[in-house]
Amino acid sequence: MRASTLTVVTIVALLLLVAAPETAIQTQETNTHRLEEVAEGVYFAVGTGSVFVMSNALVIVNDEDVVVVDSHITPAAARALIASIRTITDKPITTLINSHFHYDHAHGAQAFGDVQIIGHEFTREKLTGDPMNEHTFLTSKARFDRTLGRLEARLANVTDVTERRELETQVEFNRAHVQATQEVTPIPPDVTMSDRLTLFRGDREIQIHFFGRAHTGGDVGIYLPQDKVLFTGDMLLGGISYLGDGYVGEWAQTLQNLKQLDIDLVLPGHGPGFRDLERIDYVQAYYRDLHDGVVRLKAGGATAEEAAVQVDLTHHGDTLGVNQAGANLEAVQRIYALLDGTAE
């Protein structure tokens, strides 16, 4: 979203080109989702771009029911996911698992109706607090409002027929999302866990693990031991995650704890699934170096703004594409706040 020359629609389309696991048994595509069967009855759900979903989901079809991990960004996106699930099974959806509390993964929960919702204790704390005033949600909402305003202003002045048609599509897409956001009423988990919880559905075992603080204070991984598949939410992506609510100083150890599992396929909350587990090493190294570098600069008297410019992580260029010095200011400010004891 930092690329000023690309619209939201274009970005979504580009992400979809790579948002498929490296191996799929079969694929079911609907108007809104592509459901990639990565193991028997296990589907990686990725948006196709017609509805703004912003995150991936996991669909587990069991002998008698369906378990879903993450509900997307709005009830409208969640309803589209539910409708897509109905194209592969008519079994009831009984359980929704929150990978973490962030709006783009948890704000569609109300669309699932009377189902059991499972999440970490921290996730419940956040979703029973003031989730509509969390800075991540407010920042995203403001960004979409600005984008819609810019597009509408351009549309009002455009004369070229082709450009006008393209802008009308973009305006419709963004307006639908802005309107969908107004419907959101966050629903917290009604079942919580601290370290581990295991569900048994017929012959299937579904493990929910908390490995430590990372992207938030309550990230969980959903592990299917028979299939060696792990859904990680935003605790582990194929590259660098959003760090603004994170615990960068603890993140590498959390991922080290995750490695105790026998994993064949990682399904992240954004982007494509992957089997190259060296990617875990790459992001671990980045988080360690970012934290250590910022701590040194802070000890030397640098402000967060100065540290964000000065910290040099370009030695991660070959693995993570970090090709210029500096780091995300919000990430550095978060590290400073934790060091100062002004954030939890």
From TrEMBL:
<dbReference type="Pfam" id="PF00753">
    <property type="entry name" value="Lactamase_B"/>
</dbReference>
<dbReference type="InterPro" id="IPR050855">
    <property type="entry name" value="NDM-1-like"/>
</dbReference>
<protein>
    <recommendedName>
        <fullName>Metallo-beta-lactamase domain-containing protein</fullName>
    </recommendedName>
</protein>
<feature type="domain" description="Metallo-beta-lactamase">
    <location>
        <begin position="54"/>
        <end position="270"/>
    </location>
</feature>
<dbReference type="InterPro" id="IPR001279">
    <property type="entry name" value="Metallo-B-lactamas"/>
</dbReference>
<dbReference type="InterPro" id="IPR036866">
    <property type="entry name" value="RibonucZ/Hydroxyglut_hydro"/>
</dbReference>
